User: Fold M18 family aminopeptidase from Youxingia wuxianensis.
Amino acid sequence: MANEKTAGEKLQEQLLLKRENIGMKADDAVQAAADAFCEGYKQFIDACKVEREAVTYMIQMAKGQGYQEFDPGSVYLPGDRVFYNNRGKALILATIGTRPIADGVKIVASHIDSPRLDLKPNPLYEEGQIALFKTHYYGGIKKYQWSAIPLALHGVIVKKDGTCITVNLGEDKGDPVFTVTDLLPHLAKDQMTRSLKDGIKGEELNIVVGLRPFKDEKVTEAVKLNVMRILNEKYGITENDFISAELAAVPAFEARDLGLDRSMIGAYGHDDRVCAYTSLMAALEVKDPDYTTVTVFADKEEVGSDGNTGLNSNYLKYFIKYLAGTHGLSGREVLSKSTCLSADVNAAFDPTFDGVLEKRNCAYLNYGVVVTQYTGAGGKSGTSQASAEFMADVRNILDDAKVYWQTGELGKVDQGGGGTVAKYVAALDVDVVDVGVPVLSMHAPFEVVSKNDVYMTYEAFKAYIRAK
Assistant:
């Protein structure tokens, strides 16, 4: 018969790897579910542009689903749901499973910080009758991308008396925005001879914040004074209060559907809040897991995971130690039997810049969640490589749940590299693999993801924490 497969076609189907585009294979119901899921994600990413905002948002959602603040002295039973708030900048959610905690826990660990421009401790100055903020960039950025775009100011100011003032300025339509200026091309002859890396230098990332002077001829730096007057009237602060502030300038963009087919989302902070949201929604949905689930939303990943809110500290270990202790176990006994999905993004194939990726071993948009066995640089330095056994377990979980997934490396060998929180969780004697969403323009002020990949990442996390 004409439609009968040849022996070679049958053998090819049995033996060879076949990548599948979700748009070609999934039915309309899957596509509709992905689109609907991403509407909630867009709301989340617009509301959570710094880690403190993400923690506040997620705790509110968790409380609505029955989570209570963790008490180290309490004994928790199957089905109990708790959260641990680490200094307002990192969060752990846990749902107690039906299996003994001695069998280990299932961890999903994402991060909620993203590259940005942090204000320096003494940021406000005046030059040429213009008031500006000095910044210190946070994370790995291409500095030139952060000039000539609208910026919003987010964060907190803590006064000497302990009063904490929340700042979110530049997001509402009635708010002013801010910007880093750039040279006009007519006068950029010298600038254009710089390397791209130094097209805009770190000390040139100065944010314009005001122009009108305070009307008093006896005052020096009258524009700076007027800006400080406005801040004092709005927030009740003085210039000294910047010393005890955490303020960041972030893109004042809203998340938008991207493409004529609305198949993608363009937004600031997909890395890694797209994995934070997908793992959050999976954790909220699975209320009766077999294994105890521990969902981590970490800070400081973009700067090496250091500090007491990053996963290179001990708060995750201590949390699991407390859980174990209520059952007469040590944290070491539980951790050594635990597994983890390090929920972080990977680079997607970009046809405009295809030379940096090895096409047989990179992730593609619209091919599903990407499983990354190792990251690192050069000869796999600075990474945790998942074992073959754990890779097989993850394959089975995803296939059984009919999740569209793919594998991918972070670029060609010796092209560059990067890392995730995986190695810090692995240091606790936990089996770990990176699982997340492929991204275009990673670390840019406006990153791109596929809606289908976002949804499949949610399905992957849900399948993992449900697996027996």
User: Anything to note?
Assistant: Residues 24 and 366 are 10 Å apart (CA to CA).
